[in-house]
Amino acid sequence: MTKNSKRPVPVLNRKATKNIGRDKQSRQSILSRDKSTKQRTTSVNAFSFLSYLRNLFASISEAFCAAENTYIRFNRMFSDHKENTIDLSLTFKHLLSKYVQTFPVSKLSRFLLDLKDKRNFSREFNNLGVKCLIPSRSEKSGNIGPVFCIVHWNAPDFLLLNIKQLERIYPNNEMYVLDNGSQKLCLEELVIALKQFKNVRLFSVRPEAKSDHTLGLQFLLNYSAMQQNEFSVFLDQDCILCRTLDDLLMKFRYQKDLLLIGARDCVIMPKQHNSSLPWKRADFLRCAPKMVHPSLMILQPKKIIELFGHNAFSPHPKAMEEARDNKWGYKPYNERYYSISSRARGHILFLETKMHNEIPLLTSYSFKDVIYAYHAGYSSRTTHLSVQDSIDGIPVSLFLNIRKKAYEYMEQIHKSGTDILA
Fold this sequence. Notes:
This protein is of the alpha/beta class. It folds into two domains: 63-79 and 88-103, no CATH class; 117-136 and 144-416, Spore Coat Polysaccharide Biosynthesis Protein SpsA, Chain A (Alpha-Beta Complex), CATH 3.90.550. The protein contains twelve helices and 13 strands. The protein has helices at 14-77, 92-101, 105-126, 156-169, 184-194, 213-226, 246-254, 272-276, 301-308, 319-324, 338-343, 396-416, and strands at 131-134, 147-152, 175-179, 200-204, 232-236, 239-241, 260-268, 284-299, 348-355, 363-367, 370-375, 390-391, 394-395. The strands form two sheets. It has an eleven-stranded mixed beta sheet, with helices on both faces. Helix 4 (156-169) links the parallel strand 2 and strand 3. Helix 4 runs parallel beside helix 12 (396-416) and helix 6 (213-226) crosses helix 9 (301-308).
């Protein structure tokens, strides 16, 4: 057979073609039979499901009728003792409507709002975009004693004085600083100044992040726990230590249920400051005595994370209720960081506060008459403001004067090496 020749086409006889036709018809009949069977099966299943639903609704209606009849029988049986029994004259439908009317809608709405606040807090925290600007260059591995966590915002002068004092008291301890969205010039100044310290790690949130002090505290708490630090001391940028905190840290050794040591968020305004400082709260600067102010706060980070999770500072439903609970009837500020005090309530050791007699707003933190720190407050509140502006009804010029006096006082503490009032 040559390459160009075509292959012969096989010729089928009549019997073979008949068989092929029969096979085709048989296959079609089988397919139609299977299709009708499936349709019948589907219709049977649908019918059985509908009958099941019908029986279910019938049994439910019977149960309703039985319950209604039971209440009616009980009502007749105890009709002579209505004064000593519950009201059984209501039918099942009426009882159901009564339950709907008395449903604790306020509690449910508060629960949903708290849940929404926690979700928002978690979302805000995840959007911080924190990056490390200066890593620690300490040659020593491990950390003896506490680490110090500071949230900074637009007060590099107070922060540098604070770190110098910490390096003097605790020369071998780590310091974690989170810049919480300062102005570009402040942050650049801070980066240059902090490079001289080997034990300082500087972090920064991304410029467009919506952050606040509480979110910064949460980051430093989580980071400290991740570093396996035993103790974390949280300080405000303008809160300077006067002496070591070793005797306070020993409280955790002896009191196993202790969770938090911190400054009581209640500061009384001395009478001599009322004339020079026209404060809108004549008697109090702060008035939440059951809450801890994070300007000085000591805790065990791993223990806090184990108990309250990685959102320990997230909103707590009873935080503001407890913050308002004071005998003076003052309404406190709505601070998100109160939540950790609510979670740790009953396991807190408070440091007492006292405002300086000569320098308004400068407050000391003490335990058993031993002063551990001074807190200036308002060190960065004047940022973006002019001298003609005001804060809480007080001229900015007055705040700037108070800020200068507080800084000089703290600088004197650092240079003397001891508390000048001790």
